[in-house]
């Protein structure tokens, strides 16, 4: 059998995601970048996209190239446009290196404002042993052609989000109640996920994947903005080609905050990333 | 009914834990401390105790006093003895402030070595609304008098750990197979937990609580050292007086790493803290 790849299919290293996360080294540990308006939700720059941009800078600043664990604290809202990233190497080791990175932009008064700060440990995913004793199971939900994405709605949502044009997102119908005005009340969200241009997932795009679905808060009946305070990702394996399955769960909505756990599974049924975020909720 | 409190019962602010996590401000944002040998496991300083020491420094450096989310990357192994903590304030806001802290010690050659670096967001737990929509349930396991701790063993373990003298730790018998040479194979560990001197839990001691149980790796049949690479805690509520219940779960042991999730429940059945760590495993 011959598999036909469309001539337009983007590849890892040559895709919109790669161009929009590019960083240019200005000086030792200092990088310029330009946050694209293509990864916004209404006007907010997606937190996972920001993580990928910072991840690119750290992959250059550290002797290892794969993010193993990245912890981000979101300080102020980023905007599309120029930004500078300053990195600092905390420790370099044989198998792991740790560093930090901060992204800055100028505010309307010309003052530099820090948007996000991350601490991260990097390694080499390809050097890890093959043992897998995972007891977690992949999420069970319908095949992609029976799931639904933003493109399947009757009319485009007004003030819509340009990130939806860049994602292949097909949501499990059982976590879509919110879109029909009938949220399930369960803190769950599941979807098939890829990049719309067909670029396969890699460790860097997993940083985007953990924060690319609608928030579980929607299924909990909360329709407002749920800003991320802190997000930590563990990348556990290089993903196989093909679409990802992402499963989000919230177990504790209390005191105006919630946690959101993500699992990302690849086409080979391997758990390739796990994340947890703390987000703020404004209850009506 | 009258509840009799022993005259020797320690209190929040006046206990060994408080004395051993004390920091002294040397300069703006710089703190001296002395890591106690009382919180070691064999020779290693417990990672949760270290987190509490750094948490004390950040509570002083930031305008808010309660840790909401703390992300720690462990760089090199700490030793009992003097240490210096350097903090940096990233952002102060009305409800949340974010900062970072690093703990340094001198190595045998007199060089300063960084042991651990944390990024943390602090707030005021008492200012949060009362809403609780938690779907998570407290772990179910036997009452304390039918659980077992290090003191219940026939003989003290040689090279034993001084931290065990400072903890009230009573493990669920169903997660104790490892101690009898028959690990369950399930990545679970559950225990009643308190401080041995009767000091009640507070947000700071929750940073200790999430890393105070034997690792889930023991029940997975791994007997070696499982060093923490990264640990993030979310403190969600001020704990009620009385013993805590701590439940650990590992779902993904693969490629020489595992994640360990902790839930900490207080005596009022409230989920007061959640944590996740990435740890390294050396398989035999």
From TrEMBL, chains A, B:
Domain called Acyl-CoA thioesterase-like N-terminal HotDog: residue spans: 36-121
SUPFAM superfamilies the UniProt entry points to: Thioesterase/thiol ester dehydrase-isomerase
Protein name: Thioesterase family protein
Pfam families named among the record's database cross-references: 4HBT_3, 4HBT_3C
Domain Acyl-CoA thioesterase-like C-terminal: 157-281
Region annotation (Disordered) ranges: 139-161
């Amino acid at each position: 059998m011959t598999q036909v790849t469309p001539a337009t299919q983007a590849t890892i290293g040559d895709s919109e995601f790669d161009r929009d996360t590019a960083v240019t080294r200005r000086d030792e540990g200092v990088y310029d970048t330009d946050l694209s308006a293509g990864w916004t939700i209404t006007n907010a720059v997606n937190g996972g996209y920001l993580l990928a941009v910072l991840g690119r800078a750290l992959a250059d600043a550290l002797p290892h190239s794969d993010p193993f664990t990245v912890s981000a604290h979101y300080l102020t809202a980023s905007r599309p446009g120029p930004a500078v990233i300053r990195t600092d190497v905390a420790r370099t080791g044989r198998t792991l290196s740790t560093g930090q990175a901060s992204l800055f932009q100028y505010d309307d008064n010309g003052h530099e404002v820090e948007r996000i700060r991350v601490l991260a440990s990097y390694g080499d995913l390809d050097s890890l042993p093959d043992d897998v004793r995972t007891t977690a199971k992949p999420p069970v939900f319908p095949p992609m052609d029976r799931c639904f994405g933003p493109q399947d709605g009757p009319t485009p949502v007004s003030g819509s989000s340009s990130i939806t044009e860049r994602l292949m997102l097909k949501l499990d119908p059982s976590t879509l109640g919110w879109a029909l005005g009938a949220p399930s009340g369960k803190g769950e969200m599941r979807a098939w996920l890829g990049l719309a241009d067909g670029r396969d997932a890699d460790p860097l795009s997993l940083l985007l994947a953990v924060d690319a679905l609608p928030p579980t808060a929607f299924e909990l009946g909360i329709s407002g903005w749920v800003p991320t305070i802190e997000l930590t990702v563990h990348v556990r394996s290089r993903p196989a080609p093909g679409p990802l399955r992402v499963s989000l769960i919230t177990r504790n909505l209390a005191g105006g905050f919630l946690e959101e756990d993500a699992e990302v599974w690849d086409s080979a049924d391997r758990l390739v990333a796990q994340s947890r975020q703390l987000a703020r909720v404004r209850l009506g």
